[in-house]
From TrEMBL:
Segments crossing the lipid bilayer: none
Compartmental location: Cytoplasm
Keyword Transport annotated: no
Domain Svf1-like C-terminal: 225-419
Protein name: Cell survival pathways protein
């Protein structure tokens, strides 16, 4: 892997996952055991495992482990926590350096002085998380997968967007992911889109029972310097809570646009869960008609950050309907979903609804990585984070067999502006 630039050999220098797996009927890649294993790669590598929970009152809780490697230096490991609820103006954020981090023998569990994550050895569908961030914040949470987990494409290269010249070497045999196929690096996301969540969170003297919460788990790896990989990111996590039957809905979307060095290509992956079943896996972006996408409606200049920020966000999903992981037949063969969220309350100051905070990205990156990456002079990346109640609309089927479901829920969304 090149640390300081893109491959100079001939050929495309980015291979988006949505063009690698272009058959709309073959987007679903079931997660294998090795997909959920910690990779802990060397070189330039940032690996995250993130658990989100949406509670009955509309709060969102996040627990994230960040494993960052910089060349030959020892990895930096952080564990972060967020609790936010715009209704009560609650916003608690913690980021703690992890000591004595060890991946366990199953390669899916890990232990440290601050956090222990255990994968249920009996079925591989449940994580138990015990963490103490400091004297004020402590969590004990269980996540049990209820809808199928996925990546884009069922192969060792499933889920990967590769940067640099694509290797001509055969992919690994069996279920081992092909981390080495991109001459410059890669990006990948593996997702559990809908989980039952239980347990507790203690913040100070306040203890919150998470019984009935719903969540998502995301295992993501960036095998490339962050400032080279993407110019911006968008993320949406919609969950209905306290809903039964067809209103048990989850909508997930992750999108990034590569830097000009890698062609300014957009990569978008997503999923639709209805009735706690995975009914669609989506892929969109450059080179794809339809699929999934996010639209920044009527962007305006945010004087505080100097970035063009959205007045509203429109997330849309379109894909072949799945039944038990396979394309459905007949008139129920399509899925469409839409979430539209108006944001702006005051244009001049860019005051927006449900804003949790604007995060200075450089302030959150561990010091050694920040020093090594050496962002270009004059850039100041930001992450905008919102949490809002919204209505999602999901349409199943085509023609006379079309059925539309409108369901209320909460969407946790992020827009990361890395560079212009």
């Amino acid at each position: 892997m090149s640390w300081f630039g893109s491959s100079t050999t001939s050929g495309p220098n980015i291979h988006p996952v949505q063009t690698t797996f272009s058959d709309p009927n073959a987007l679903f890649g079931p997660l294998k055991v090795k997909d959920l294993e910690w990779n802990c790669g060397g070189g330039i590598n940032t690996e995250t495992q993130t658990w989100y929970a949406t509670t009955k009152d509309g709060s969102v809780i996040m627990c994230q482990i960040i494993h960052s490697s910089v060349g030959l230096l020892w990895p930096n490991i952080q564990v972060t926590f967020r609790l936010c609820n715009p209704k009560t103006n609650t916003n608690v954020w913690k980021s703690v350096s992890v000591t004595n981090f060890k991946v366990q023998s199953d390669k899916r569990s890990c232990k440290s002085d601050q956090i222990t994550v255990t994968m249920d050895p009996t079925n591989g569908n449940k994580y138990t998380i015990q963490a103490k961030y400091d004297e004020d914040v402590q969590i004990s949470i269980e996540y049990e997968r209820v809808a199928d987990g996925f990546k884009i494409g069922d192969s060792p290269r499933g889920g990967f967007t590769y940067f640099g010249q694509l290797s001509s070497k055969p992919a690994p045999s069996g279920d081992a992911p092909d981390y080495a196929a991109g001459g410059d690096g890669y990006a990948i996301h593996r997702i559990w889109p809908r989980c039952n969540v239980s347990g507790m969170v203690r913040v100070g003297n306040d203890v919150q029972d998470l019984d009935g919460a719903r969540g998502v788990f995301i295992h993501a790896i960036q095998g490339l310097r962050p400032n080279l990989l993407a110019a911006n990111w968008n993320f949406a996590n919609f969950q209905s809570v306290g809903k039964e039957g067809e209103e048990a809905v989850s909508l997930i979307m992750m999108e990034f646009t590569s830097t000009p060095q890698y062609g300014s290509k957009t990569v978008n992956i997503g999923s639709v869960v209805v009735g706690d079943k995975l009914v669609a896996v989506t892929a969109g972006g450059s080179g794809v008609v339809g699929g999934s996408n996010v639209t920044h409606v009527d962007p305006i200049k945010d004087a505080e950050t100097d970035y063009d920020a959205p007045s509203a966000l429109k997330f849309s999903w379109e894909a072949t309907r799945l039944e038990d992981g396979k394309p459905a037949a007949g008139g129920n063969a399509k899925v469409h979903a839409l979430v539209h969220m108006d944001l702006v309350e005051e244009k001049e100051t860019y005051k927006t609804k449900g804003l949790v905070e604007k995060v200075d990205v450089l302030g959150q990156i561990p010091y050694l990585i920040r020093k090594f990456v050496n962002y270009a002079a004059g850039t100041k990346p930001y992450i905008y984070t919102w949490l809002n109640p919204v209505k999602a609309s999901i349409t199943l089927g085509d023609g006379s067999e079309t059925k539309t479901i409108d369901v209320d829920g909460y969407v946790f969304s992020e827009f990361s502006a890395i560079s212009k």
